Automatic annotation (TrEMBL):
InterPro entries in the record: Acyl_transf_3_dom (IPR002656), Acyltransferase_3 (IPR050879)
Protein name: Peptidoglycan/LPS O-acetylase OafA/YrhL, contains acyltransferase and SGNH-hydrolase domains
Domain annotation Acyltransferase: ranges: 16-348
Region feature Disordered, mapped onto this chain: 366-385
GO molecular function list: acyltransferase activity, transferring groups other than amino-acyl groups; hydrolase activity
Transmembrane segments: 22-44, 56-73, 93-110, 151-172, 179-197, 209-232, 244-263, 269-292, 304-322, 334-355
Keyword vocabulary terms for this entry: Acyltransferase, Hydrolase, Membrane, Transferase, Transmembrane, Transmembrane helix
Length: 385
């Protein structure tokens, strides 16, 4: 009989979730390639079906972020705050700064190719400051939150999530069983209701920012991830297996463009994401079959953060040089897309290996506080941590 999830949860790495990170990053790459490589006719329609919803991969990342942080918390609680925040900074900032420098350099190259430039990617003191401090998502104007490296607005959200995590985790840990399941359902429904909340209370000019960009709003997905991890770790998760959850997510993804754009742009796949992530985690815990544990996918998933940081810079710079004034034939557009994917990973893999991974290892090298010596081993002391 396979071991229950709750028995192995605190120490399992869950490689399927790493493989799924690659898939989510690929979705985000797809929508950007589709957006910046002009193509017409039937190929455009296919791209609209398969690639246009790819920005929903960001929602997947937000839920996954809450899940893996909770999973990594020892004994079901967050590590000491100083060490936690240091780990988060080392996790995202060194690679981010390198990618930001690459984006600034690419702007210079783009200006040479297109003197008119792109206002969404301009380099000025304001955009550089908000980007360096990762606060751009708190500004409601798109010139700021999409400044320099447009994908970085999501990291601005992640920083806010990290600040909220030491508060959210103890609150949600108080729930058990059905209450946890109810909380997960609540967060899914709340995510779906955000467009209605924005329509009722937010100026129309800022509604998309409120629903899609604002860290407070997107924290709903992060909180959902925390709740799902607690459900799986406690053994209270009752959901479909990985094959069915994958099929439901895929079907959901393929029909999102039929939904009203307010929902499509935000929480269109939130419910099936809430099924897929725990299903993949449970598959790893029970030893069930999972394609996402394949070593190649896990390797690409390990580098998905670096890939996410650099891919749009590479896509936009290349298309600025090549030109977007005409539609490309389908075969040429596909070749361009594959080429940009390869180049993006060719940059991302060394960025992960030589910047991101060494920075993460710095925290592990820090000596742990010494354990005070015990004068005697009384029976009541054995097993106390």
């Amino acid at each position: 009989m396979p071991e229950s999830p709750s028995a192995t949860a605190p120490t399992s790495r869950l490689p399927s979730l790493t493989g799924l990170r690659f898939a989510a990053a690929l979705l985000v790459f797809g929508v950007h390639a589709y957006s910046f490589i002009p193509v017409g006719g039937f190929a455009h329609d296919v791209g609209h079906l398969l690639l246009d919803p790819g920005d929903l991969g960001v929602s997947f990342f937000f839920v996954l972020s809450g899940f893996v942080l909770t999973w990594a918390a020892r004994g079901g609680s967050a590590r000491p705050l100083g060490r936690f925040f240091a780990g988060r900074v080392l996790r995202i900032y060194p690679a981010y700064v390198v990618a930001l420098g690459l984006a600034v350099a690419s702007k210079w190259v783009g200006d040479l190719a297109d003197p008119i430039g792109n206002r969404m990617n301009q380099v000025n003191g304001h955009n550089l400051t908000t980007s360096l401090f990762l606060v751009q998502a708190w500004y409601p104007d798109d010139v700021t939150y999409l400044g320099i490296n447009p994908v970085a607005w999501s990291l601005s959200c992640e920083i806010a999530f990290y600040a909220a995590f030491p508060l959210l985790l103890p609150l949600l840990r108080r729930l058990t069983g059905r209450a946890l399941g109810g909380a997960a359902a609540f967060f899914v429904v709340l995510g779906l209701l955000m467009p209605l909340i924005a329509h009722a209370f937010v100026d129309p000019a800022f509604q998309r920012w409120f629903v899609y960009i604002l860290p407070v709003t997107r924290c709903v997905e992060f909180a959902l991830g925390i709740t799902l991890a607690l459900l799986v770790r406690s053994g209270a998760w009752r959901g479909p297996g990985l094959p069915l959850a994958s099929a439901l997510f895929t079907a959901n993804y393929l029909i999102v463009n039929l939904l009203p754009h307010q929902v499509r742009d935000t929480a269109a796949v939130l419910a099936t994401t809430a099924l897929l992530i725990p299903a993949a985690a449970t598959a790893d815990l029970t030893g069930a079959r999972s394609i996402w544990r394949h070593p190649v996918l896990v390797r690409l998933g390990d580098a998905s953060y670096a890939f996410f940081l650099v891919h749009l810079t590479i896509v936009t710079t290349t298309m600025t040089i090549l030109g977007r004034s005409h539609d490309y034939p389908a075969w040429q557009a596909m070749s361009l897309g594959i080429g940009l994917l390869v180049v993006s990973y060719a940059v991302a893999l060394p960025l992960h290996r030589y910047v991101e991974a060494p920075a993460m290892r710095l925290l592990r090298r820090r000596p742990r506080p010494p354990i005070p010596a015990q004068r005697s081993r009384q029976p009541e002391q054995i097993g106390v941590s």
